[in-house]
Design goal:
heterodimer; A: 2-enoyl-CoA Hydratase, Chain A, domain 1; 2 domains; 49% helix; B: 2-enoyl-CoA Hydratase, Chain A, domain 1; two-stranded antiparallel sheet; 10 helices; 39% helix; binds zinc ion
Chain lengths: 314, 283
């Protein structure tokens, strides 16, 4: 069963009518309804508020990392484990081909259905997940394979074991090592980019976001509780934090917004997968056109120049 | 929990009503063993309780006095100031919070960065000030750290960062988040130059600070009792739905779990740091 958000009700109504018309084989009605649907989609999705976009970013019908991998990665093998503690199912690693290009893919994976959600820990990795990601990223570097990272997490897991095994260090180590990795890398926020737990696989030559994804230093819920002292102020916090792809592109904090179908990846998975694949392939061509030194220099400059401040003496 | 608040509150409440020609006496109560001490006494001990060894929070000037050779500290990048890229307003505006922090600390940043000698060894020293917006990491703080790394490379010396921070500064949102990767990338460059970086974790070192430069030291030293971790204790409690074990996320806990190299008494800190720098440099 597809889940519809409040602002999608009208769209659902038209889609239901289309299904009914299809059953009746009423071609004329279908044509009219399709046009209606197009109009309604344009009207609804072009005026979404940041809070509505947040709901889309978290939508359970949105493709998760594994959905994208299944749609775009061919002849693939999954790689498991950090070699020290255990295999963290909240992070998945694959090797295979994207349109003939050998690629290593690392993704944060949420689950669907209660059992799977628990198995994937709601997409919240433990330190061993980040260490698995780093191990596989280093393997990509060793064999000169490009790296695609798919970000989708509410955040790194806040728990006893995670702290005992040094969640902080696992994230910090990835930030340092991914900055130095000498293979081409593209990181894409596909849904939720939750703070340090997202950034831990977000350091790359190119950082992009799907149209309806978000990237934030803290969840709007957490921010509302801390700064407003009022959990109900989630919408205000969402607006203030500027977490949407368009906002972050405008602020110069990400490289690109990927042209996800207007109706949203949750309604058009194939369309979203194609947009993501095409973006990756384009970027890969561009990155391969640079020498290793040029590429590394550009990445280092991008990473170390980010920030907004003024200098009185200048 | 801010011990500096406790400190100033107890100071206030314990003041005798001073008469015109009587100077107010200042008494400090140890938050751990509750002993009362004359403020000069605990100041001389670098805010380590002489009775129980509890480490009270120490301000940034006292910290620099503690570590730098007398008269050797030269501050850099003091004129970096935050802007408000998102025009962030919660219950107060970010601008207002910066102004309040400025009134309180005389600075517009939670970081003081400079160069000094420590027992004669040239060192880049970066110190966090928890009393400015909870020591939070924003664009100015990230930039100061990167510049300190660059100076260390230029002058072929080591770097010490003393952290005291609640984490990333929410009012700068993703700008502050990206200071984590910014500082970590710069430390990678320092490591390639084979120059030492020692990370000192004081109370508290949390969130985005813990999960970036603070955990990347060649040697990581914590002060006794310091709270150190990625997630806040309240969040963890809510997530797991039970109380936290005794001593969880404290310096001694991290030492036992293998997350840090040593827990060092503040009165031994300078010697430990300069000894290590001596061992790492000029080999
Ligand atoms: Zn005491």
């Amino acid at each position: 069963m597809a889940t519809y958000l409040e602002f999608e009700k009208k769209i659902k109504e038209i889609q239901d009518n289309i299904i009914a018309a299809e059953v009746r084989r009423d071609e004329a009605a279908i044509e009219i309804l399709q046009k209606q649907l197009e109009k309604e989609v344009a009207k609804t999705y072009k005026n979404l508020s940041p809070y509505q976009k947040l709901q889309l970013a978290r939508h359970q019908d949105r493709p998760y990392a594994l959905d994208y991998i299944n749609m775009i990665l061919e002849d693939k093998y999954e790689l498991h484990g950090d070699r020290h503690f255990r295999d963290d199912p909240a992070i998945i690693c694959y090797i295979g081909y994207i349109n003939g290009e050998k690629t290593v893919v690392i993704g944060e994976q949420k689950g669907r259905g209660t059992k799977n959600k628990i198995r994937r820990n709601f997409g919240m990795p433990h330190p061993e997940g980040y260490r698995k990601a780093l191990r596989v990223a280093k393997m990509a570097e060793k064999f000169n394979l490009p790296l695609l990272m798919l970000i989708d997490t509410p955040g790194a897991y806040p728990g006893l074991g995670a702290e005992e095994r040094n969640q902080s260090e696992a994230i910090a180590r990835n930030l340092l090592e991914l900055a130095e990795l000498d293979t081409p890398s593209v990181s894409i926020v596909i849904g939720e980019g939750g703070s340090g737990g997202a950034l831990a696989i977000g350091v790359a030559d190119k950082l992009a976001m799907m149209r309806y994804s978000v990237f934030s230093v803290i969840s709007p819920e957490g921010c509302a509780a801390i700064l407003w002292n009022d959990p109900a102020k989630v919408e205000a916090a969402t607006n203030a934090l500027k977490i949407t792809s368009e906002d972050l592109k405008e602020l110069g904090l990400i490289d690109d917004v990927i042209d996800e179908p207007l109706i949203g990846a949750h309604r058009d998975k194939e369309g979203a997968a194609n947009a993501l694949k095409n973006y990756y392939l384009e970027q890969l061509q561009e990155l391969k056109g640079l020498s290793k030194e040029e590429r590394m220099q550009k990445r280092y400059e991008k990473l170390t120049q980010v920030g907004a401040f003024k200098e009185a003496s200048k | 929990m801010n011990f500096l608040n406790i400190f100033s509150k107890s100071q206030q409440s314990l003041k005798k009503q001073p008469t015109k020609d009587e100077a107010p006496s200042h008494w400090v109560k140890c938050p751990s063993c509750q002993s009362l001490m004359y403020y000069k006494e605990i100041e001389n001990q670098n805010y380590v309780c002489p009775k129980c060894g509890f480490h009270l929070r120490i301000n940034v000037n006292d910290r620099i006095k503690l570590l730098a050779d007398e008269g050797s500290f030269v501050e850099y990048d003091a004129d970096l100031e935050p802007v408000d890229p998102l025009h962030f307003v919660d219950k107060k505006s970010y601008k207002k919070r910066v102004e309040e922090g400025f009134k309180k600390t005389g600075r517009k940043s939670s970081v003081v960065s400079g160069e000094c000698t420590m027992d004669g060894i040239l060192t880049q020293l970066v110190v966090f000030d928890f009393s400015f917006m909870g020591g939070s990491l924003g664009s100015v703080e990230g930039e100061k750290i990167v510049r300190a790394v660059n100076r260390a490379i230029e002058k072929r010396c080591g770097l010490i960062i003393v952290s005291a921070s609640g984490g990333a500064r929410m009012q700068e949102s993703t700008f502050s988040l990206m200071q984590m990767s910014k500082t970590s990338a710069a430390l990678g460059k320092l490591a390639k130059e084979k120059l030492p970086y020692i990370s000192v974790l004081s109370d508290p070192t949390m969130g985005g600070v813990s999960a970036s430069f603070a955990m990347l030291g060649d040697v990581i030293i914590a002060e006794p009792g310091a709270l150190i971790g990625f997630a806040g204790q309240r969040v963890i409690k809510q997530t797991i739905g039970s109380d936290l074990p005794e001593g969880f996320q404290r310096a001694e806990f991290l030492l036992e779990k293998g997350s840090i190299d040593m827990v060092v008494n503040r009165n031994e800190l300078k010697k430990t740091l300069s000894d290590l720098m001596k061992l790492f440099l000029n080999n």
